[in-house]
């Protein structure tokens, strides 16, 4: 059995932390990494943050066992299929392993490089969430794979596996870069240095292309109006609710009306759904005409909760600001704004479709991830 403490594992920990500490690449618990050593793959355990991960944050898995998964037939029903695949993934852990492997462990296994790093940089997602992102990727990164929007988990791993086989058949090579529409990027290489060189090249290419960057310069707001908004949100969520306000030049532009709000009105990726909700609540400025503005804001939050089955994580008030429940929601919503701005270079925003958003919202894996990252 491969020993848990190896030089390669030390390299993986260092590589993971270096990206995990850089907000340009990783926010909160997003992203995952792996390393292969013979017939063993070390993959990030679900719920561990890359920035602080240690050796015990990785699960040892049998590569032959993971390969055998492709010989099995799974149910067509989404829930039944993912439950069965999850059990098989758990069964592929080496003896003594108790942590739950990343949901993308199967995808890591099919990428035949010693190191694999999957991240969600906002600049990359400006491309993957752009209307013309696929066309741009083919021009800017001709050796990369582009994977259209598909359900994560087993389906995504299978689509990538088949796409890589087709690529090898026509190119006699294996791609190092995989762009996932409305998700992020996978990079594979046989050394940590190779990973870094590829990511540096990808980010430089995109940086040279983007037409503009988000302007987060702070904007002055009306203190009395903001106090009413906070009062209403606390009527809804409780006096001890952690509410973070954001207002800057970029948001001032986006909050003018429903048309300008559209580029930040839905979810780009699974991480955005997990941390900042599948969509924000929009409150127009007529709320300030109400006899009791705070009570009206609380009422609209309750109405959202009843309609959607869950309370809003982010509330956008026309012309006044964005209010997020907690630091995680605020960070990921600012990431939404970044992605929206970067996507302007690539034809404008392309959100996840409603069916995919519903799948993510109800997927047991993401519910689990949300629970362990609270």
Mean pLDDT: 94
The named CATH superfamily of the largest domain:
Class II aldolase/adducin N-terminal domain
Shape: globular
Q: What low-confidence regions span 5 or more consecutive residues with pLDDT below 50? A: 368-374
Separation of the first and last Cα atoms: 34 Å
Classify the fold: give the CATH topology of the largest domain: L-fuculose-1-phosphate Aldolase
Strand content: 5-15%
Give the helix proportion (percent range): 40-55%
Structural class: alpha+beta
CATH architecture descriptor of the largest domain? 3-Layer(aba) Sandwich
Number of helices: 16
Number of domains: 2
Radius of gyration: 22 Å
- What's the CATH class of the largest domain, please? Alpha Beta
Characterize the largest beta sheet: strand count, sense, and whether it forms a barrel: 7 strands, mixed
Give the topology string: H per helix, E per strand. Answer: HEEEHHHEHHEHEEHHEHHHEHEEHHH
Q: Main sheet: which strands, in order across?
A: 3-2-1-4-7-6-5
Oligomer: single chain
User: How many E-type strands?
Assistant: 11
């Amino acid at each position: 059995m491969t020993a848990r403490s190896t030089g390669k594992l030390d390299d993986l920990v260092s590589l993971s932390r270096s990206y995990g500490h850089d907000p340009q690449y990783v926010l909160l618990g997003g992203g995952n990494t792996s390393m292969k050593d013979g017939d063993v793959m070390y993959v990030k355990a679900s719920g561990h943050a890359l920035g602080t991960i240690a050796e015990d944050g990785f699960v040892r898995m049998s590569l032959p066992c993971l390969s055998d998964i492709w010989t099995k037939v799974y149910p067509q029903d989404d829930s039944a299929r993912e439950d069965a695949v999850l059990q098989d993934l758990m069964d592929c852990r080496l003896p003594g392993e108790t942590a739950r492997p990343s949901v993308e462990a199967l995808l890591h296994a099919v990428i035949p490089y010693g190191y694999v790093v999957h991240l969600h940089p906002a600049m990359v997602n400006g491309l993957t969430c752009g209307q013309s992102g696929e066309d741009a990727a083919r021009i800017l990164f001709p050796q990369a794979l582009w994977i259209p929007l598909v359900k994560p988990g087993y389906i995504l791993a299978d689509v990538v596996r088949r796409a890589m086989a087709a690529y090898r058949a026509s190119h006699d090579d294996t791609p190092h870069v995989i762009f996932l529409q409305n998700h992020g990027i996978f990079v594979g290489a046989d050394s940590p240095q190779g990973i870094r060189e590829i990511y540096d090249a990808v980010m430089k290419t995109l940086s040279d292309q983007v037409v503009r960057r988000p302007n987060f310069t702070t904007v002055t707001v009306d203190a009395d109006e903001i106090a009413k908004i906070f009062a209403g949100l606390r009527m809804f969520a409780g006096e001890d609710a952690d509410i973070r306000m954001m207002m800057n030049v970029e948001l001032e532009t986006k909050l003018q009306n429903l048309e300008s709000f559209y580029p930040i009105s839905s979810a780009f990726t699974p991480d955005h759904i997990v941390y900042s909700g599948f969509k924000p609540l929009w409150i127009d400025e007529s709320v300030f005409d109400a006899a009791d503005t705070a009570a009206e804001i609380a009422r609209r939050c309750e109405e959202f909760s009843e309609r959607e089955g869950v309370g809003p994580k982010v509330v956008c008030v026309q012309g006044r600001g964005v209010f997020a429940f907690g630091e995680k929601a605020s960070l990921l919503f600012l990431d939404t704004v970044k992605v929206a701005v970067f996507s302007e270079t690539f034809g404008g925003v392309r959100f996840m479709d409603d069916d995919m958003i519903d799948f993510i919202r109800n997927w047991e894996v993401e519910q689990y991830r949300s629970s362990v990252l609270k």
